[in-house]
Amino acid sequence: MKTDPAWLPDQAFRAIGTRRVVVCGGDGPVVRTVVDEVTRACARYGGRVWHGTAGSPDADGADLLLVLTDLDCLPGEAAAVRAEIAPGQPLGKEGYALARPAGATVVVADGPAGLLYGLFHVARLGEAAFDGWRPLEVHRPASARRMLDHWDNIDVHPVMGQVERGYAGGSIFWRAGEPRDLHRVREYGRLLAAIGVNAVAVNNVNVHATEARLLTDRLGDVAAIADVLRPFGIRTHLSVSFASPMVLGGLPTADPLDPRVREWWSSAVADVYATIPDFGGFVVKADSEGQPGPFGYGRTHADGANALAAALSDHGGVVHWRAFVYNHRQDWRDRTTDRARAAYDHFAPLDGQFADNVILQVKYGPIDFQTREPVSPVIAAMPSTSVAVELQVTQEYTGQQRHVCYLGPLWASILRFRPWGPDGRAVASVAGDGGGLVAVSNVGDDPFWTGHPLAQANLYAFGRLAWDPFLDPLDVLDEWISLTFAPCPSVLRSALHEIMDSSWQVYESYTAPLGVGFMVNPGSHYGPGVDGYEYTPWGTYHFADRDGVGVDRTRASGTGYTGQYPAPWRDVYESVASCPDELLLFFHHVPYSHVLRSGLPLIQHIYDTHFDGVTKVVEMRRRWAEIADFVNAARHARVAQLLDEQVRCAQEWRDQINAYFFRKSGIPDARGRHIH
Ligand code: GCV
């Protein structure tokens, strides 16, 4: 099957392709991409394109002007638009301004990437971009760093497969130990440019032996990928092993303070930049889940990160140092080893000790990409450190691309969260200060890119929210629908919204309740395994007993985790009375009779949500069946098949969770439904 065009079908460029377009922007690789896009669209739909690098183009009669402002060929209309932008508000390398002062739509940018993003903005607008008068709009990304991490292995790992937590087939970069034909990577770069992603890490953060060599003797493979992604404004990054000086360099140590080790990193990095001059930098998972790190040498994570940062700094590279550090062998040894506490306990004391080009990459929640977690307190604890927030587009804990689960609303809630209360800054602003947004990609060699065709919307939403975290996630979904299903009839649009808008909440309703998390099968993390992670001295991970359920993370009587938040959240979360219900079981152990804000006792809430969740999934499946005539047959069949699995799995969740809590509590369903 041909690769699905995702959100860039030819139709998405129809409005541009029927116009007379002037591109005035020099001749670099990114501008060349702009010209190629417009040329292709015009060839298909009968428009005309003029591309110049200097001199005065004949912009008379043009419908669309795409202009780089630093050239001497600024047509009058573009100069007027540029002049309107407030002098103290530069567009920056990636920003652009869009206006339609008279008969022509004008996009001006100060850098090539801005021009490319402006072009895709016009594509999103479609015919509306050429309709009437349009006032000046200035668009700049909220974060300079908008990155996707691939957990791809070159070899097929015996347990994790080729893509760790990948649900869309094999890697798009590698096959059978070798680089793949990069045609698809080019298409991927194009899709990413259209959503504003500007950085990609091409290998798993769990760095195995073959992948470690990407840094040295297999660097050519990375350079080939970088060459393909560069014209889309994307910089390439590499996950590296902290032990590289030993495993690749033959040194007896990887101690970050050892001069030989520092010398080794400098020389390896110099080789990288000689091969890939715009290389982005490293991603490092250290002292986590078996990966080596500075603790082995009695050093701190600041020592570790800074050693790599020193090697990169002269070249403009950064280290994304992951804060996902916890002792996976001693989780829950006692109260202090509550895994939720680990990242803060390790990193908050190090604030101010990291080099300028270290970015601390923090998972959005304190545990591990659960369906519902509070925002990680680390994000508010590092005012002197660049912090990147890490999301998971691959759906490890949210249905593994077999369930419809649109994550835009979850991410929007995280990015808008204000750790210092309503008058303080939002998470998005902390990330925007330097670290940016990072997500684990959900893409593989599947013809639909993402296994579940509707999971493309998650990748789309990540890019769009990384660009502007305050976009309404349902508007973003609507954009994705409009482009992907263009020209989208209203009957299809409304069905897709009915299926997808609340699909994250629906998924939550039939899985682990109220933030308790981790009721999945161990290892695979798919399907219900209520006591799957049963390794606390007290029994289960969620502390369910005959009287109640949930983890006491209070300062008063629990693990003390609430104390990692600044006011007001440290107090809001501390008390059962003020803790939001959706996180109640994350923070508190409460009796089954506890009455929620809905007026329902906890046990009844569990029963109701699990019955309702299944009903809603059955309804999703019915809606999808109704729109068969409006969707490409292969796409329709794939989603229909996956919806069957979603119904099956939701029923399994419902039955296991309800039966479990019925047996624990002995309290029957007040509505008299049969619990299996
Ligand atoms: C890449 C979770 C996943 C692991 C993943 C890890 C991480 O634990 O289950 O597969 O490893 O997160 O983020 O490093």
TrEMBL record:
Keyword check for Ribosomal protein: no
Domain Glycosyl hydrolase family 67 catalytic: 138-449
Keywords of this entry: Hydrolase
Highest rank taxon of the organism: Bacteria
Pfam families in the record: Glyco_hydro_67C, Glyco_hydro_67M
InterPro entries noted in UniProt: A-glucoronidase_C_sf (IPR037054), GH (IPR017853), Glyco_hydro_67_C (IPR011099), Glyco_hydro_67_cat (IPR011100), Hex-like_dom2 (IPR029018)
Every Glycosyl hydrolase family 67 C-terminal domain range: 450-673
Name of the protein this chain belongs to: Xylan alpha-(1->2)-glucuronosidase
